[in-house]
Design brief:
Chain A has 77 residues and is of the alpha+beta class. Chain A has helices at 14-17, 19-23, 61-65; strands at residues 2-6, 29-33, 46-50, 71-75. The longest helix of chain A is centred in the N-terminal third of the chain and has 5 residues, at 19-23. The longest helix of chain B has 13 residues, at 46-58. The chains are: A alpha+beta (77), B alpha+beta (272).
Chain lengths: 77, 272
């Protein structure tokens, strides 16, 4: 199993960076509001998650390019 | 003709049937469905897709056994079909109002929150626009028919696949213009093998004499359906891989590509 961990403490504003979203060749990531969107209120807290983890090859390009070193990829046996 | 044509088309292609855009279909249930769909797409749709993906990663065979059930649910709620540009224009001709909105898939998958590739269409003058007041979606652009057609033609030349989408079938509420890795439906279908939409009623054919082997068509095909022979200097289409979107035609300088009705070729008539 492949695990991709994104650390919100190291990456506070993923919506302004998006390098992981742009770079991942497999398109594994997604960006979403931390909480459910509420009517009339603009989202401030965005988080990075995985959506197509089954496509991840653990190539590691996301952790290489992340300017905040906020992504770690691990292959668990 | 696809099964939606049989069920909802009354002799026409279902997406050219005016009643599938009609006022009586825009009931409270559908309004609520659309408001939830767009209002919190990343969680409502994203979480569901992520759970399915996780199931595939953990137990591929077990997850795939669930696919038929998921497909039936999608067909009821939110189903799409690839439609070539000239028929999208016919749909726009039937529409009374067109709004251009940011694409929720590109927003979620790429963080592009102002990527205006999606068109809301109805054949009624309705003031109902889901999440119109949500600041994350900013302003909705209202387009007149000719502006909408020009915009779609431009997207066609950029190689984007057009499709129609239901919001609780058979009501069609939107036209999408997608590239494969940025679209939840195309990506789920091509990469995870889960059918989320029908291919077009057509497939593409290269007219051998007209093709000069420039390979422009290959450049825009989202499905890797076109191959090139260095020896004969011609391109050809893999008919089983082709979705019939027809965007390859826009970049062909020699009118060498035509769309052919799927129904006329027995081996492709049931290939959706």
């Amino acid at each position: 199993m492949i695990e991709v961990r994104w650390d919100s403490k190291k990456c506070a504003t993923p919506q302004d960076c998006r390098v992981c979203l742009d770079t991942c060749p497999q398109g594994v990531f997604r960006i979403m509001p931390k909480e459910a969107r509420k009517p009339g209120k603009a989202t401030e807290d965005w988080v990075i998650g995985t959506l197509f983890l089954s496509l991840c090859t653990a190539c590691g390009i996301c952790s290489d390019v992340c300017p905040k070193k906020a992504i770690a990829v691990a292959v668990a046996s | 003709m696809c099964e939606f044509c049989t069920q909802h088309g009354e002799g026409k292609k279902w997406y050219l049937q005016a009643k599938n855009y009609s006022e009586e279909l825009l009931n409270d249930q559908r309004k609520q469905f659309m408001a939830e769909f767009f209002g919190d797409f990343e969680h409502v749709i994203g979480d569901k897709a992520a759970a399915l993906d996780k199931a595939i990663a953990t137990d591929a065979a077990g997850a795939k056994a669930l696919f038929p059930m998921v497909v039936e649910q999608q067909k009821r709620d939110h189903w799409g079909q690839v439609v070539p540009v000239e028929e999208i224009e016919q749909i726009l001709d039937m529409s009374l109002s067109v709004v251009r909105v940011p694409c929720v898939c590109r927003s979620m998958l790429r963080g592009f929150r102002e990527a205006r590739y999606c068109f809301g269409v109805t054949s009624v003058n309705s003031d109902f626009v889901p999440v119109a007041d949500h600041p994350d979606y900013r302003d909705l652009e209202v387009l007149d028919r000719e502006e909408a057609k020009a915009a779609i033609r431009k997207l066609d030349r950029e190689g984007l696949v057009h499709s129609v989408w239901t919001f609780i079938s058979p009501m069609i509420g939107g036209i999408c213009n997608c590239s494969v890795n940025e679209c939840m439906a195309l990506k789920t279908r091509t990469r995870l093998g889960l059918q989320t939409m029908f291919k077009a009623e057509y497939f593409a054919r290269v007219e051998w004499e007209n093709c000069n082997g420039c390979r422009n068509c290959m450049k825009v095909c989202n499905f890797g359906a076109i191959s090139y022979s260095a020896y004969s200097r011609k391109c050809s289409v893999n008919q089983l891989q082709c979705y019939g979107c027809g965007v390859c035609r826009a970049l062909c300088h020699r009118d060498a590509i035509t769309l052919v009705e799927r129904a006329g070729v027995p081996a492709l008539a049931g290939e959706w």
